[in-house]
């Protein structure tokens, strides 16, 4: 069921050598992963690299096609409300995930600005930023390969109003090579009269979802132990019970239907197939509750429908940083986020109920079901796409919102697509930004709930630790060598260029401008 272009790019590149850590007399185990988003795909890479027979079931045509993402939250500076420890966790996770998926990162700074209408001050963030610099420095001291965010002492810098006024008089360059050059278009386009100073500029980079999808699919194509079933619906999950008196769950039976390729076999009908796995991993994103209900696990969670909007603006004059205007989430003055892509494309988040958030877009689980029920219209959007009139109206609202602080952006054009979807939130705290995995050892079941995509490798690590405890994987330290050194085999066989070529195909299939699959600056 591998996508045809994956076969073309990795036709005979399976890694045939099984890790020595698994050759200690342990029986080969099967793992089923339901959901091929960032969590499911990353966990699958981790497990397949260990030689486990890994099956990924994804209902869409390709992996990692979910809620809006655009930003490597390497420090969590977008979120003034979360604890400093969570920000440090995000920093560590982002460095790790960037080393797994290096060809997905767009290297450019992010500008954080506090508007005058906001109650807080830029200085409030200085203690956190200094903690992040210290944490980043320590990580680089531990392993020089962790220096993926530039020099630690340059992790953040401050710009005064006087500096910005001087930069506004300088000539803009098309391709910035210094931080001052990056800040020239910011100085020219931001309405400085509406902001508090200093501005904060941090090395929080872009993260490209199309390149992430391409990287994951090419990585899994490397492993003969990885079986990726896209365009596949899981119809049921049921336990295989020990017939002895202990009634212990020995395996899980997965019933699924894969859509036939009608171009190759036009008369073929989908039929139900069954596979038994030794361990079941639920990575269904906002639909994790459906599998929880089938398994019989009761859990609290929320689901939120969110969207970001694609626009085109030729007035930037060249490459510019990402621009964040702080605000209180869910209010009419919520945070504005302008994310640049090559050739004048921009993605907009506006954390108001008229733009990224929705008045009725947050749903809770109920005593009857672990799966929160979003309104039908949002489920329809997720499955079939947006109503074009509503999409255009929201995109125009997003443009107008950004134009309050970047006046020239009012000339930006709406596009015909958005990045949107449901986001799971474990528990009942809608400010949660760091989460990973829940383990149910007694029934050989795990659930990955990653609020941020950067947490997925940590979730995979926790599952590997669980497998060692259960005897599925050997405790030989060599089992984790490729992980600790980030020696991912697919990186030896795939370049930034061919990952980009696959990403362009994906962007086109999903109805997005091909330019959005490109990077302005790579790691």
TrEMBL record:
> Looking at the keywords, is Oxidoreductase present?
yes
What keyword terms does UniProt attach to this protein? Answer: Oxidoreductase
Q: Which domain of life is it from?
A: Bacteria
Boundaries of each FAD dependent oxidoreductase domain copy?
31-409
Gene3D superfamilies linked to this entry: FAD/NAD(P)-binding domain
For this entry, the protein name equals: FAD dependent oxidoreductase domain-containing protein
What is the organism field in this record? Pseudoalteromonas aliena SW19
């Amino acid at each position: 069921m591998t996508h045809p272009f994956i076969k073309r790019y990795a036709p005979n590149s399976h890694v045939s050598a099984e890790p020595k850590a698994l050759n200690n007399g342990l029986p080969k185990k099967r793992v089923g992963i339901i959901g091929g988003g960032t969590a499911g795909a990353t966990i699958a890479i981790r497990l397949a690299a260990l030689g486990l027979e890994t099956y990924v079931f994804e209902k869409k045509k390709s992996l990692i096609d979910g809620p809006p993402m655009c930003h490597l939250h390497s420090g969590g500076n977008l979120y003034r409300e979360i604890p400093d420890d969570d920000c440090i966790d995000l920093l560590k996770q982002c460095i790790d995930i960037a080393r797994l998926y290096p060809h997905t990162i767009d290297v450019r700074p992010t500008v954080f600005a506090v508007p005058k209408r906001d109650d807080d001050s830029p200085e409030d963030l200085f203690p956190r930023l200094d903690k992040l610099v210290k944490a980043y420095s320590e990580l680089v001291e531990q392993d020089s390969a962790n220096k993926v965010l530039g020099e630690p002492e340059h992790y953040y810098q401050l710009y005064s109003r006087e500096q910005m006024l001087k930069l506004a008089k300088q000539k803009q360059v098309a391709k910035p090579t210094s931080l001052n050059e990056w800040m020239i278009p910011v100085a020219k386009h931001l309405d400085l009269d509406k902001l508090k100073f200093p501005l904060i500029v941090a090395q929080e980079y872009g993260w490209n979802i199309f390149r992430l999808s391409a990287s994951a699919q090419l990585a899994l194509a490397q492993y003969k132990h990885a079986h990726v079933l896209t365009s596949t619906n899981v119809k049921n999950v049921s336990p295989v019970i020990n017939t002895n008196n202990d009634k212990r769950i020995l395996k899980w039976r997965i019933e699924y239907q894969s859509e036939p390729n009608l171009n190759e076999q036009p008369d073929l009908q989908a039929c139900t197939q069954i596979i038994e796995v030794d361990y079941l991993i639920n990575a269904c994103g906002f639909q994790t509750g459906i599998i929880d209900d089938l398994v019989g696990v009761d859990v609290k969670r929320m689901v939120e429908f969110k969207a970001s909007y694609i626009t085109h603006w030729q007035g930037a004059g060249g490459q510019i940083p990402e621009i964040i205007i702080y605000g209180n989430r869910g209010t009419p003055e919520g945070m504005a986020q302008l994310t640049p892509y090559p050739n004048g494309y921009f993605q907009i988040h506006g954390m108001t109920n008229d733009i990224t958030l929705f008045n009725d877009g947050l749903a809770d689980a109920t005593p009857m079901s672990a799966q929160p029920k979003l309104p039908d219209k949002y489920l329809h959007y997720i499955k079939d796409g947006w109503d074009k009139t509503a999409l255009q109206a929201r995109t125009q609202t997003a443009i107008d919102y950004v134009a309050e602080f970047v006046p020239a952006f009012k000339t930006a054009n709406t596009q015909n697509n958005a990045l949107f979807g449901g986001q799971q939130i474990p528990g009942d705290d809608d400010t949660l930004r760091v989460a990973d995995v829940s383990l149910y050892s007694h029934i050989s079941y795990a659930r990955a709930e990653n609020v941020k995509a950067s947490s997925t490798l940590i979730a995979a690590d926790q599952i590997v630790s669980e497998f060692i405890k259960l005897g599925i994987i050997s405790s030989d330290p060599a089992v984790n060598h490729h992980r600790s050194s980030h020696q991912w085999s697919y990186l030896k066989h795939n370049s930034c260029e061919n990952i980009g070529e696959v990403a362009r195909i994906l962007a086109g299939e999903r109805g997005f401008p091909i330019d959005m699959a490109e990077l302005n600056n790579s790691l």
